[in-house]
Structure formats: C-alpha cells, structure tokens
Amino acid sequence: MAFSQTPSTRVPLASAQSPLAAPAAGVTNTEKERDLYKLMYENSANANEKLLTLTQWTLGVSLAIVLGIIASQVFFNYRINRQELDAISNGIQGQIDRLQLEIAQKFTEEVSKANSSLESSKTELTRSVNALIEAQFTVNEKALERELRNQKGELMLEIRQLRRLAKKNEGDIWNLKNVKSNALSCFIEVAELETGLLMDEKYTLKEIVQLLTELDEVMHTTHDKLEALLPKIRASNISLKNKMVEILKTKPTYNFVRPDRQDHFLFNMPQKQYVRNKPK
Known about the structure:
The chain is mostly helical. The longest helix is centred in the middle third of the chain and has 148 residues, at 29-176. The chain has a 3-stranded mixed β-sheet with strand order 1-2-3. It is built from 6 helices and 3 strands. The model is unreliable at 1-26 (pLDDT under 50).
C-alpha cells in the first residue's frame, strides 16, 4: 500500500534571525529577547498547527485505507461465508431429504410388517375362532347326541313298558277266551320284555308254567321262544326255570307244513307235523 509523502515544513530562519542580525536602534537587549522569544513561540505554534493538520490528514487517510481493507475483507468473507452457508444448507437439506426418505422407507416397512402381523394374527384368530366354534359345536353335538340317546332310551323304555302292558292284556284276553297257545305266546313276549327292562319276571313265569301244564302240546315256534327265554331268567327264579325245562322235555312239539300234493285244495291245507315228543 503506497502512502503519499508530504513535503516537510521548514521554518525560515532568516525571519527568526533578522532581529538578531540587525537590531533596531534604541532597542534594549531585554526587549530584543522578548521579541525573539515571541517570534519563536509564533513559529513554533505555526509549526505545531501544521504538524497537527498533517497528522490528522495522515490519520484520516490511514483510517480510510484501514476501513477499505476491512470492508474488502468483510465483503470477501461474506462471499466465502455465503458460499459455505449455501453448501452447509445444501448438505443439511440433503441429509434432511435422505432422513425423510429413510423415515418413509422405515415407516413403509413397519406398516408392511404391522399389516403382515395383523393379517397373521387375523388368520390365527380366525383359525382359533373356527376351532373354538368347531369344538363347541362338537361338544354341543355330543351333548345333543347324549340327550337324544337319553330321550330315545327313555322313549324306548316307555314304549317297551307300554308294549309289555299291551301284551300282558292281550295274553289275559286270550286266556279268558281259552286260547291257551296264543296266551302262551303273549306271556313269553311279556317275559322277554321284562328281562330287558330289568323287571322281575316271576309272575309272568308262573303264568307260562301254568299254561304249559294246561296245554297238551306246543308249536315249534313257541318252543324256540321258550328256549331263547331260559338263559335270560334271573337266578332268583331258578325254580320256575327248572319247571319249564322239565315240561319242555316231554311236551309234544308240532309244526304246520304244506303237503306236496296240490291237485285239490283240500290236500293243499297245512297239516300238523310233530317235530318232538310225538304223542303215541
């Protein structure tokens, strides 16, 4: 940086030395000294004033130069800082964009995972609900089946009891009509029903023994029914069972068969044929 050089101010000595060189006539030395000091003071004051002006001007120029340098530095630094700020801003904006993209991707992944988990939970819940409904349906179905079986058993029990009463009444009616063979068939069926109902068949067996004693012979089907009934008789009625066995050993048993001849309707009628203990 160039500074302008101001020419130095010199105080002319001739004017200061003139009073000494040619003193005025009639002037004393004291006056001369006073004038000399006065002149020196004035010259010194002028010199100081000029020096102060020069200093002020120099300081002003230096301050202007310094301010120019500072201004240029500030402007330069502003431009650099502006570029740096733009770069930093762009970097921050890029990081923000990347962060937003990562957050969006993360959010999408989390939503996808949540949807998958929700779908899986929904499927599992549906499966569990279906299994629970099926299990409950199975339980209800089994309970209903048990209830139906119980009701069916109770109904069948009532039907058997009603059938027993009906057959007993039918047997009594045939007995009153003196049709002993039909009465015997009815009482055998009553005894079968009573053994199935876990009822005491004692009185029915007495009726059967009485009818067997009164009948001279029995049909083959009646004999087979009695044979099937014997194993079902309880031990408490063993005496009646033994009587029935003894009677059946000697009781004639017959069956009806059709003859081979079919040339006349009279010969086509079923004929009695003995299969056991044929009477003499």
